Amino acid sequence: MDRTLRRPPSYSDSFIVLSGKQTELEPLKSPLLRRDSGFFIESPPPLEPSILQSPSIELPVPQIIISRPHSPAEKWFNRIMSLGVHITLISLFETIFFFQFVSVSEDTGLKSTIDSYVNNILTTCKNWTSEQHIVINDILSVLVNVTQVDENGSIASSNRHAFNSSLHLQSWMYFVGLLSTIIVTGFLGSHASLRIAYKRILVENLIMVTLLGLYEWTFFETIIYNYENISPPEIDQFVVGQLQTTCNLLTYNNT
Q1: pLDDT value for 86
Q2: For the chain, which ranges sit under pLDDT 50?
Q3: Would you state the pLDDT for residue 192?
Q4: For this UniProt entry, which segments traverse the membrane (predicted)?
Q5: Cα distances (Å, whole numbers) of residue 167 to 82, 87, 95, 103, 213
């Protein structure tokens, strides 16, 4: 027993008990601290400095992109591009709208006017007697050459379709020319390092042309299609007036 402690030393003590004769620290000569003991636990090897040092991880630094304002040259160039795109889209709209809707409606309206005028004659001819048919047919045969009318009508129809087809092609050439000009201009601007707002220009002009198309369609549906053309009685009056003035016919008054 150690007289200083006045009790037997415990293995859980965290200090080393020195005998009176010892001047240096020595480990307890305990069976548990012997290497041949089954309870001996070796302390782990000291960590190397490379392990203690945490690896350096390079985190991406967020980059804040500050857009510089457009220069005067870029502003004018974007305005010119916007105007060119607007005219190009208008050219496309007018080509489709006229040849697919306007021209068809004009032909239909003219045919309906002629049908109304002819139907009046066709209605009255059913009540003619045989003698009246013979007299009127003789008069019309002198005035009208049916064979020549058919030939002239076929030639005129072919010429009209050919001419209108050339106009249709010409309108598409306008659109292709404008589109090519816009593409070349945009390429030259990009090559000159000018910032062009392609998305904004295209979206704005598509919205404007779409609104214009809706207005045109509404205008035609409510105004153009409801417009009253020259009526058959007016055509009758015009024909009779021309016969009276030029041929001195129908000068008598029917009462």
Answers
A1: 94
A2: 51-52
A3: 84
A4: 80-102, 172-189, 201-220
A5: 27, 19, 10, 12, 22
SS (H, E, C) the chain: CECCCCECCCCCCCCCCCCCCCCCCCCCCCHHHCCCCCCCCCCCCCCCHHHHCCCCCCCCCCCCCCCCCCCHHHHHHHHHHHHHHHHHHHHHHHHHHHHHHHHHHHHHHHHHHHHHHHHHHHHHHCCCCHHHHHHHHHHHHHHCCHHHHHHHHHHHHHHHHHHHHHHHHHHHHHHHHHHHHHHHHHHHHHHCCCCCCHHHHHHHHHHHHHHHHHHHHHHHHHHHCCCCCCCHHHHHHHHHHHHHHHHCCCCCCCC
Predicted local confidence at residue 44, as pLDDT? 63
Task: With CA atoms as reference, report the closest residue to 88 among 250, 253, 235, 202.
Answer: 202
Question: What pLDDT is recorded for position 51?
Answer: 47
Cβ-in-10-Å burial (0-12, 13-18, 19+) of 172 comes to middle
Q: What is the model's pLDDT at position 73?
A: 83
Establish if 137 belongs to a structural domain: yes
The reported pLDDT for the residue numbered 88 is 95
State the Cα–Cα distance between residues 116 and 229, nearest whole angstrom.
Answer: 12
Using one digit for the tens of pLDDT, what is the confidence trace for 116-127?
777 877 888 888
Per the domain annotation, does 60 fall within a domain? no
Note the pLDDT tens digit of each residue in 224-237: 888 887 777 888 88
| Residue 3 exposure: Cα atoms within 13 Å on the Cβ side | 2
Question: What is the number of structural domains in the chain?
Answer: 1
Residues in the chain: 255
Domain that holds residue 206: 72-228
209 domain residue, yes or no: yes
